[in-house]
């Protein structure tokens, strides 16, 4: 993120197709470098992970409020099992900053 400011609100939208979403671990890595877990091997053998995570509903994201957000924000997706396949169809990040 090029603009300075402190985080007021954040929402992460995910669309992932995978043969077993219970194998996936998904984290948002803010400029601080400390990953925030969004999805941690839940969902069993479901095939789609279409979800919005926000600071209003997820305490780990809410903990980022007031933190500086200048720098790179990354999405980290890990498949913790073998022999299945998946695809990150899309993801988006909505951020509101305070001056």
Automatic annotation (TrEMBL):
<dbReference type="GO" id="GO:0004252">
    <property type="term" value="F:serine-type endopeptidase activity"/>
</dbReference>
<dbReference type="Pfam" id="PF01483">
    <property type="entry name" value="P_proprotein"/>
</dbReference>
<keyword id="KW-0645">Protease</keyword>
<keyword id="KW-0378">Hydrolase</keyword>
<dbReference type="InterPro" id="IPR002884">
    <property type="entry name" value="P_dom"/>
</dbReference>
<protein>
    <recommendedName>
        <fullName>P/Homo B domain-containing protein</fullName>
    </recommendedName>
</protein>
<dbReference type="InterPro" id="IPR008979">
    <property type="entry name" value="Galactose-bd-like_sf"/>
</dbReference>
<feature type="domain" description="P/Homo B">
    <location>
        <begin position="1"/>
        <end position="99"/>
    </location>
</feature>
<dbReference type="GO" id="GO:0006508">
    <property type="term" value="P:proteolysis"/>
</dbReference>
């Amino acid at each position: 993120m090029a603009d300075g400011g402190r985080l007021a609100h954040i929402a992460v939208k995910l669309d992932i197709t995978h043969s077993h979403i219970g194998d996936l671990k998904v984290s948002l890595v803010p400029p601080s470098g400390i990953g925030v877990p969004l999805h941690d091997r839940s969902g069993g053998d479901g095939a789609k992970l279409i979800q919005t995570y926000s600071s209003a509903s997820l305490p780990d994201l809410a903990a980022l409020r007031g933190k500086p957000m200048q720098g790179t924000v990354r999405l980290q997706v890990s498949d913790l099992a073998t022999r299945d396949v998946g695809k990150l169809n899309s993801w988006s990040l909505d951020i509101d900053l305070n001056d």
